[in-house]
Records
---
Amino acid sequence: MPRRTGEAGSVLHTPILKTTISHRFEAIHNVGAALDEGRIETFYQPIVRLDTSEIVGLEALCRMRMSSGSVVPAGDFHDATTDVRLGSRITQTMMSNVAKDLRYWLDSGIPVQHVGINVSSSDFHKGDLGDRLTKTFGGMNVPLRHIVLEVTESVYLGQRYTAIADEIRTLRSKGLLVALDDFGTGFASLTHLLNVPIDIIKIDKSFVDGIAEGGGGTAIIKGVLGIAGDLGIRVVAEGVETPDQVRRLRTLGCILGQGYHFSKAAGRDATTELLLRFAQQLSASTGKMVQLETYRQRLVH
């Protein structure tokens, strides 16, 4: 039944709309409580050289620990992350966690090159993201060269496109890198490469899934690799799950990958063990591919 809203018109209320709104409010409530109680945690997934299996970086992924002790991924509470206030709090919590973990790894002599942190359009609304980054990582004496800001193309949509692009340029001048995440799933992808300074392209999993023989993903990935190479941009293939995908990506010339084939996301302790065994600077890469596959199986099972 439509509910009258005055002379201007009416809004149609349906059970589906009511359910959607209820889910959003529930997610906001649950995430707010988790933030207050320190149950928003940071897990890490390695970014790996496809030819040697050496870890060259990490992506920090948000997780919420439920009161029961179970851990759920950010996709399960995505509605809450779109709330500007909560989104900002989540990002700050993630930055603080990453700063502490990076300081721990650096103090322990564990080779870690950089960690990617996801930021959204809500993080740019206040215009203080640069100050927050400087304060958070500077307070832990962590150089910003260890940080990669991962942004999706949705960040660049809307009236504040130019302002956000300028802020990203300013952030890059502080030493950190910028990655364009889920590349190819948004609007005007190639335009963004021209107008916004980008250091890394992360090819969306949907294209990696389509890389099988005869699949359209092969042509798209090949094209992206060519364009990125001409522009001096590194490429990471996301969602790598099988040895065949690794082989095909290597044949196309893709050097870096990320996905369950190498490791699921893990907490700091498990990630520390991974870095100790497979980080790029530790030792020669011979045999690491087999070792990492064995370790991955242990993590999964």
Note: The first strand starts at residue 2 and ends at 4.
---
Amino acid sequence: MRAVIQRVLEASVTIDAKVTSTIGNGLLILIGIEAADTEEDIVWLSQKICNMRLFDDLEGVMNLSAVDVGAEVLLISQFTLYASTRKGNRPSYIGAARPEIAMPLYEKLISRLSLDLGRSIATGTFGADMRVSLVNHGPVTIIIDTKSKS
């Protein structure tokens, strides 16, 4: 799994001209899933996201986690995170999991993040044409690949 994590003051997703999810202070997470991903990747990634110190303490140092500050989370599926640009000018998405594999893993990640955060999270709609808006705070943007754990 690949995740692009952005600390935001606010974020929202719009589908068919209707705002379907919105959050305040928290994390916008774009998630890409490949066929080799497992539930072990879900557990590891969720714990990493929830406990990573991305929020400022009283001294303005990033020492607090999403759990510590009660951050809201908006999770958006994005298969293009597995784009290969090695040849030509048209990206190949062959590395991204097919929907029948990716969707159940995406749903399990939603459940696991909610469990680890102790609250429900906001989401986009898997496979939908979405408009994502955000106000990046910092800016803070972190990229994580579960295949690079060690």
Note: The radius of gyration is 15 Å.
---
Amino acid sequence: MSLLLLNVLLALAWSALMGNFDPPYLLFGFVLGYFILYLFQKPPRTQKYFREVPLVIEFAFFFLWEIVVSNIRLTITILSPHPQLRPAVVAVPLDLKSEVGIVLLANLITLTPGTLSLDISSNKHTLYVHIFDLDDPEKFVKKIKNNYERRVREILE
């Protein structure tokens, strides 16, 4: 049985014992189950699951923060009396090899306000991104590569 499934079952068991299936109970049960599984595994540090869960949680917080910052930046731009917009299409070279990773990266970029993934090159080495207001193309590419692509690669590959 996979550790993720076992962790979810432990979270459901915790919620059943508490008699409440609200999200805070399920989340607490998941965290409690994670620590129980971590303690009772023979070599816990070598299990892939115990490396990936903290990465996914860190990525979720990072992405939520990026959405909030992008929303604020976009709101300020839209509400300014004379916005100086510089829309652009930027080619982002990709290091990701898996199609799942490329699609996930493209969707994460699209979900971030002010950016939109347009296309992936036929050889899957370049992602074309439209950005609402671009200051510096190199800085934007570096941000995508260091913040988004690196994290997706750590989780999936």
Note: The chain has five helices and three strands.
---
Amino acid sequence: MFVNYWFIIFAGIFFPIFWLCKIPKIRKMWLLLACVIFHYRFAGAAGVIPIIFLGVVTYFAGISNNKTFRTLTIILCVSELIFYKYSIFFISQVIGYINADFAQTMLSVAKDKLLPTAPPLAISFFVFEFVHYLVDLQRGKQPIRSVGDFTLFSIFWPSVVSGPIKRFEQFLPSIVKGCENVNAMDIQIGLMRITMGLVKKLIIADNLNGYISYYQPNFATLPYELRWLIFIAISLRILFDFSGYSDMAIGFARLMGIRLPENFNWPYLASSLQDFWRRWHISLSSWIRDYIYIPLGGNQCGMMRKISNGIIAFGICGLWHGAAWNFIFWGIYHGIGLVVSTNIKSFFERFWIINKMSLLFLPFTWFATLTFVSVGWLYFFYPVSVATSMIYSLIYRY
């Protein structure tokens, strides 16, 4: 959405006016108007109305000081996400397994009368941010009382599509700072991040995507070395594509003097799976940790409970990415991997000699982590059967 003619015109009008205006209140109003225009342009009426409804209910739940109202609103937000994003999947895969004819009737009703052709734009991000907001209020944080501030938190245009997921306690002070003063350093850093993002997305990721799309359908019949090149290209594509988007979102926000949270920190240099998730899609992984994994009990419980907590948390993480079995499988794959790797690490840390020689093991742990993550990307992008077949083709040189 940052690489089309409409956005170029939008940015060409928005930023000069934002910079030239020196009155903080007018700047904030201009930013708010731009956020509304941006969201409506890409979401349309069908995508905007459900978000407006959720936003209004969340705002009033926040200022109500009523814990029951807030809890019910959290349930409403999650229910709306499930309704729009997972209804078709649930009907076809679960009800269809029980009664195919009844499922077909329900699908017809859902598609023709209840659901839009696509879920509201970025509803997963909206719901996660609204849930974070309400849960933090339940834990004692102060609500956002300004309607304008809450709207900016909800539909801040650089992050509205794919994040990073914001925490309102850090974001709102940054809005105030940006509207009061944007300096040359902010603009310089912002332009640098946007340039980095464009290079990652347009030059690297999109070319890798063309390469993968051409060869992947005939993966099993390709020369053995080429299979491995495509396997590596798949891992590099998602890194450069998504981190490129995050760079652009962070860069456009920085042009306003506003700081969004970093989302990537050289994840493919991670030496363990825990380290990888501290570096990859940081805003999502920290959200999963703080609002799902830790409330379930985290790792402060017995082995079986730790395993189930990890599987549930990352199963939800996988399902959050899309309504398909391969996403669920990918999430569970990482959940089990995290539990196993954490316990292996804890076991070996008991031995003094291993702790002293830990640097010698770094190349091995780095390679094992990167391999595990890269295999996971196959399940992320392709149906489970196709991904498994590709792994088989990587192992055996037939």
Note: The chain has a mean pLDDT of 91.
